[in-house]
Amino acid sequence: TPKPSSAASDVYKRQEELVEILGGEALSLGFSEKPPTIILLAGLQGVGKTTNAVKLAKWFKSQGRNPMLVGADLQRPAAVKQLMTLAESIDVPVFSEDSDPISVAKEGLREATSLGKDVLIYDTAGRLSIDQDLMDEIRKISDEIKPHYTFLVIDAMTGQEAVNVAGAFNEKLSIDAMILTKLDGDSRGGAALSAKTVVGKPIAFASIGEKIEDFEVFHPDRLASRILGMGDVLTGLIGGLASLPKIKVKNAAILGAYVHSEAGRLSRKIKGSTSMTASDVISFIPQVFKNLEE
What we know:
disordered N terminus; globular; disordered C terminus
């Protein structure tokens, strides 16, 4: 049997490293012996929490579960109406009422229990940026319903901001895993790698399109293949960074993927239409190094 080339071995090794960094294996969810299994979604406004709450409900339904949704976002106009409209399309009930988020959360749990639902998903309010009111509200909801899982919904297209948000929420809430949205464009692997490193929690699901069915369990090996499949430039970048002093191989992989995914203005260069210069890469390094352990 012919031995693989050195280049092929390097790519395989780096893929294994990326898979490990991204969580190793797809997350396996457990279910409460006393239903319902409660899932709380958190995140900033505009990341797609409401849509992904419905996508998640549809996924659970496809697994033979009997889900229900709770509309606890009483801040954003028409948020509950949007949730109900989307949920109606997949025949999943929604509970909400015109009171306050804590009361809605409490009564939603009571309603789900009385109806015999085995999965309960909470859509909560977001803000345009991290603020104390948002954190206090989501903390109170969490204390009231005691979720089995708290999923942070982050937008893969926001790059470094996704990393900052993940870190801030993780300080205030006990985040169990993340849902990565908008992973359907050019490779957004950098956001996944960076957020996973900062939070230290797995990515549970990925939203890969706008349709309700465009939602899947996150598979680290698939994204690793996608990142390394973008061409020799990225592979060479990771290898080159790993050879520099004080940069661990793991950090080089994160940095290389981040630079690739974040540099929208470099995408044409990466694909070969023009050359990528050292200054192009260097311009992105300071943003990332503060999130990497030396």
